[in-house]
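Your task:
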Amino acid sequence: MSEKTAKPLLLGMNNPLSDDPEYDLYPYPEGSSGWRLWKMLPGDPPRAEYLRRFDRRNLLRAREWSAGAARAAAAALLLELRGRTVIVLGSQVRAALDLPRVEPLTWHACEAHGFDWLAVPHPSGKNLWYNNLANRSQVGAFLWSLACRGAAQ
């Protein structure tokens, strides 16, 4: 993986509660995807620290998910990802970006668009992969190490 200078980008689907980009993967309300990611981080960091250390973005501003709209949004976003470290949250986001299926928590380079990416299962309450404490702990530790490395640069 090449050296990056920006904060890691958490890239999710959409926010069913708000189309305001400030609330993309926000660590509130309890049970939301942003809240789940924040709660996975080791050491119980304050919400403000989660917000400070990660860039957060959803593919769609719409409150409803649409695979077609996501593919169009992803195509427009690809130029902005150049030089970034992107945490791709879930298979639907990965598919919208036209990235290959990969094992969770493995690094890949998108050479065509110049960014490195990590596949992470979507942190929704519906994803049973996170019922395993070891999986939650591994994702949290991995994300936090990325965030702390980015802050040290």
In short: The first strand starts at residue 9 and ends at 12. Residues 23 and 57 are 9 Å apart (CA to CA). The chain has five helices and five strands. The radius of gyration is 14 Å.
